[in-house]
C-alpha cells in the first residue's frame, strides 16, 4: 500500500516539476525506509529495492523532460534485465537517496545505473537494461534520442556493463531450445 502512496506523491511531484536536466545527468530522489518496507531482519527487503528503482526511473524520465512526450506517444518502458549488488543494509526510518543515471546505449537497449546512498555510504548498486515499446514494436534508439532532443556523442559503456552484456548473451546462448 505504501508504494501506491509513494506513486501518488511522485505524480504530485511530477505535476509541479519545472526543472529539467540533460539526458546524461544524474537524477536523485530521496526516500525514507518505512517499517512496511522492511523484512523480519529489520532492513529494506530485496524486492523493495526493485520497486523503488521503478519509481526513481520514472522520476528520471520526468527530469529529462521525456515523461509527457512518452505518454503522448503511448510508449512504455520495459526492463529487460537487472543486476543488483547489495553492500550495506538500509534500516527502518533511515533516509536514503537513489541516484539514477543513463550510462549509455547500444543498437537496441538503454543501460541505467542506480545507486542507493545515505550518509552511511553506498548501500546497493544496480544496472538496468531496457527498451521503450509502442504498439508497433520497440522504439528505436535513434527515435528515442530524437524525442529527447539529444544530439551529443553517445557515452562509452563502462567495462562492467560490457561484461554484463556478454554474460546476458551467454545465458541466452546456453538456454536456447534444442
Please summarize what this structure is:
The chain is of the alpha+beta class and 178 residues long.
Mind explaining what this structure looks like?
- This protein has 178 residues and is of the alpha+beta class.
- It is 35% helix and 30% strand.
- It has helices at 2-16, 46-63, 67-73, 141-147, 159-174, and strands spanning 27-32, 76-86, 95-105, 110-118, 121-134, 137-138.
- Strands 1, 2, 3, 4, 5 and 6 form a six-stranded antiparallel β-sheet that branches.
- A hairpin with a 2-residue loop joins strand 4 (110-118) and strand 5 (121-134).
- Helix 1 runs parallel beside helix 2 (46-63).
- It is globular and about 40 Å long.
- It starts with a helix and ends with a helix.
- The mean pLDDT is 93.
Specify the structural class: alpha+beta
Largest sheet: 6 strands, antiparallel
Helix content: 25-40%
Termini, distance in Å? Answer: 43 Å
H/E topology pattern? HEHHEEEEEHH
The proportion of residues in beta strands is 25-35%
Number of strands: 6
- Radius of gyration, in Å, reads 17 Å
Distinctive features:
six-stranded antiparallel sheet, 5 helices, globular, 178 residues
Q: Which SSEs are present, and which pair or pack?
A:
Elements: H1 2-16, E1 27-32, H2 46-63, H3 67-73, E2 76-86, E3 95-105, E4 110-118, E5 121-134, E6 137-138, H4 141-147, H5 159-174
Antiparallel strand pairs: 1-3, 2-5, 3-4, 4-5, 5-6
Helix pairs in contact: 1-2
Amino acid at each position: 500500500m505504501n508504494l501506491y502512496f509513494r506513486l501518488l506523491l511522485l505524480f504530485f511531484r511530477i505535476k509541479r516539476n519545472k526543472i529539467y536536466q540533460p539526458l546524461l545527468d544524474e537524477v536523485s530522489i530521496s526516500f525514507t525506509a518505512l517499517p512496511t518496507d522492511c523484512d523480519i531482519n529489520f532492513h529494506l527487503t530485496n524486492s523493495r529495492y526493485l520497486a523503488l528503482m521503478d519509481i526513481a526511473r520514472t522520476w528520471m524520465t520526468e527530469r529529462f523532460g521525456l515523461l509527457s512526450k512518452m505518454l503522448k506517444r503511448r510508449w512504455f518502458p520495459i526492463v529487460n534485465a537487472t543486476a543488483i549488488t547489495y553492500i550495506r543494509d538500509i534500516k527502518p526510518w533511515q533516509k536514503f537517496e537513489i541516484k539514477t543515471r543513463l550510462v549509455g546505449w547500444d543498437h537496441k537497449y538503454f543501460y541505467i545505473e542506480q545507486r542507493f546512498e545515505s550518509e552511511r555510504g553506498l548501500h546497493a548498486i544496480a544496472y538496468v537494461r531496457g527498451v521503450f515499446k509502442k504498439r508497433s514494436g520497440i522504439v528505436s534508439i535513434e527515435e528515442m534520442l530524437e524525442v529527447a532532443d539529444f544530439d551529443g556523442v553517445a557515452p562509452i559503456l563502462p567495462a562492467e556493463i560490457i561484461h554484463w552484456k556478454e554474460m546476458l548473451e551467454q545465458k541466452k546462448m546456453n538456454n536456447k531450445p534444442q
